[in-house]
Amino acid sequence: MATALKTAGKRNTTRQKHARAKPKPSGPKR
Is 26 in a helix, a strand, or coil? Predict the structure, then answer.
Protein backbone atom coordinates (compact mmCIF):
# COMPACT_ATOMS: atom_id res chain seq x y z
CA MET A 1 0.00 0.00 0.00
CA ALA A 2 2.76 2.41 0.91
CA THR A 3 4.48 1.85 -2.42
CA ALA A 4 1.22 2.15 -4.34
CA LEU A 5 0.39 5.38 -2.55
CA LYS A 6 3.82 6.76 -3.32
CA THR A 7 3.58 5.91 -7.01
CA ALA A 8 0.00 7.14 -7.23
CA GLY A 9 0.89 10.37 -5.45
CA LYS A 10 3.84 11.00 -7.73
CA ARG A 11 1.79 10.20 -10.84
CA ASN A 12 -1.35 12.05 -9.79
CA THR A 13 0.21 15.07 -8.17
CA THR A 14 -2.34 17.49 -9.62
CA ARG A 15 -5.18 15.07 -8.99
CA GLN A 16 -4.21 14.67 -5.33
CA LYS A 17 -3.94 18.43 -4.89
CA HIS A 18 -7.42 18.94 -6.34
CA ALA A 19 -8.90 16.05 -4.41
CA ARG A 20 -6.73 15.98 -1.25
CA ALA A 21 -9.40 13.96 0.56
CA LYS A 22 -7.15 12.01 2.94
CA PRO A 23 -4.04 13.37 4.67
CA LYS A 24 -0.68 11.89 3.72
CA PRO A 25 0.87 9.93 6.61
CA SER A 26 4.18 10.03 4.74
CA GLY A 27 4.82 13.61 5.92
CA PRO A 28 2.56 16.69 5.89
CA LYS A 29 4.07 19.46 3.77
CA ARG A 30 2.34 22.23 5.65
Answer: coil
Torsion sign across C-alpha atoms 20, 22, 23, 25? negative
User: Nearest Cα to 17, choosing from 25, 9, 7?
Assistant: 9
Q: Is the distance from CB of 11 to CB of 3 less than 8 angstroms? A: no
pLDDT in tens, 1-29: 555 555 655 655 555 555 566 666 666 66
Sign of the Cα pseudo-torsion (22, 24, 28, 29, in order)? negative
> What is the number of other CB atoms lying within 10 angstroms of the CB of residue 9?
13
